[in-house]
Design brief:
435 residues; alpha/beta; Aspartate Aminotransferase, domain 2; Aspartate Aminotransferase, domain 1; three-stranded antiparallel β-sheet; binds 4'-deoxy-4'-aminopyridoxal-5'-phosphate; phosphoserine transaminase; aminotransferase; pyridoxal phosphate binding; amino-acid biosynthesis; EC 2.6.1.52
Length: 435
């Protein structure tokens, strides 16, 4: 059945079959030891080799400089929403004694670029923890957005904190999995940040849903993190790449100066100092991720190879949407911010699709009068029929995220160019039979 199935889930999502077959073997008898990988001590030499090899291959794939540490931890991307803020505030307090008192106990601003649901959640978490979270951009509120994510305005239009206030970080999400919004290639426009800001404010990226799909300039960042369950491996492991200078001091040293107390397992310094083995790590997820790294590096042309395939795959599907004359409606209006990983779209009611030109002029005329333009003419029953049609053709998990509805086809690394062509054919067939 697997050979006939095309899994386009947004995560957890498809992984290379060869990796899964190997993993299945390794969970029973790892490398002739007579023991399964998850039955070994995490402090054994055998597992040490597993984690070190995974790290070495990841470093090669992403060109991680020596002065950056790589840690494998748990808690998912969501735990990093708090861990990034907590650690950077702890570091801030330890290295700027007096700052918290002078700021009336509020602490430094933490800048968040909100381009979709996940960066929004990260900002909400910092607020919930009582920190001075400062949205530098809320892409739902820019003119024409009508309260929906779907564009990334240029940095010159963001409301960045004054570097004199020593912001603890600038946080962004490189690819918004739910909303299908991604920073345009080649990646976050670091060079657009004012020099005084760029050279002093730590840049933090959530790359959970697009890591290893294009190169990323690690040096421009202080922290890059990603949950594994999209391009990397099984759920359960989260990778954090961070500048070593951030863990020179223990954040507890910031506590007397107003910094936060941080749960032990979230303290980056503990994880780095112990080579990710402060406590028992998610061994199986690390191993499978390691197999994915090795395969990408040795057989698939590394990140450059993945980037080229991602470009072709996204181009094929977005062209189909754009050429569908209003039948398939891409939800992201800014073409260069359309995610190469998560293609999100609605399906128009057949009447509206036929009159696509008319529908558009109604929308732009309506905008002058009301803040929220008339609801787009999509047809939920037709979207449901599309999901069923995909299923009947062996294509699974294409329903949009429950918070936004519509359709989402995720084209992660494990989805090949040929499989994307298969999706395109099914989409063309569905359109032809419906119209
Ligand atoms: N960030 C992004 C970009 C995500 O896509 C997700 C999950 N899909 C998360 C964070 C949260 O990850 P987790 O469920 O592992 O906590």
């Amino acid at each position: 059945r697997r050979a006939q199935t095309l899994n386009l889930g947004a995560g957890p999502s498809s992984l290379p079959t060869s990796v899964l077959v190997q993993s299945a073997q390794d969970i029973v008898d790892y490398s002739g030891t007579g023991m399964g990988l998850i039955e070994l001590s995490h402090r054994s030499g055998t597992f040490k080799t597993v984690i070190e090899t995974a790290e070495a291959n990841l470093r090669k794939l992403l060109d991680v400089p020596e002065d950056y540490a790589v840690i494998f931890t748990q808690g998912g991307g969501t735990e990093q929403f708090s861990a990034t803020a907590l650690n950077l505030l702890g570091y801030h307090a330890a290295t700027n004694p007096g700052y918290f008192q002078e700021s009336g106990g509020r602490g430094p601003p933490i800048d968040y670029a909100i381009t979709g649901s996940w960066s929004n959640k990260a900002c909400q978490e910092a607020t919930r923890l009582g920190f001075n979270a400062h949205p530098v951009l809320d892409a739902r509120k820019v003119p024409g957005a009508n309260g929906k994510f779907g564009s990334i305005p240029p940095v010159s239009e963001w409301n960045l904190s004054d570097p004199a206030q020593k912001p603890a970080m600038l946080y962004y999400c490189d690819n918004e999995t739910v909303d299908g919004v991604e920073f345009p290639s080649p990646g976050f426009p670091v060079e657009s940040l004012p020099e005084a800001y760029r050279s002093t404010v730590p840049l933090v990226a959530d790359c959970s849903s697009n890591i290893l799909s294009r190169p990323i300039d690690i040096r421009a960042h202080s922290i890059v993190f990603f949950g594994a369950q999209k391009n990397v491996g099984p759920p359960g492991v989260t990778v954090v790449i961070l500048r070593r200078s951030l863990v020179e001091v223990h954040p507890d040293q910031g506590v007397p100066h107003g910094g936060p107390r941080i749960p032990t397992t979230l303290v980056y310094k503990n994880l780095v100092d112990n080579g990710s083995l402060y406590n028992t790590p998610p061994m199986f997820s690390i191993h499978v991720s390691g197999l994915v790294f090795a395969k990408l590096l040795q057989e698939q042309g590394g990140v450059q190879g993945a980037a080229e395939r991602s470009r072709l795959k996204a181009q094929r599907i977005y062209k189909l949407l754009d050429d569908s004359r209003g039948f398939y409606l891409p939800t992201v209006k800014q073409p260069n911010a359309r995610s190469r990983m998560n293609v999100t779209f609605r399906i128009a009611s057949t009447g509206a699709a036929a009159a696509a030109g008319t529908a558009q002029s109604t929308t732009s005329a309506g905008e002058a009068k009301v803040e929220s333009a008339p609801a787009p003419a999509f047809d939920e029953a037709l979207e449901e029929a599309f999901v069923k049609f995909c299923k009947a053709n062996g294509i699974e998990q294409v329903k949009g995220h429950r918070s936004v509805g519509g359709i989402r086809t995720s084209l992660y690394n494990a989805v090949s160019v040929e499989e994307t062509e298969r999706l395109a054919r099914v989409m063309e067939e569905f359109m032809a039979k419906t119209l």
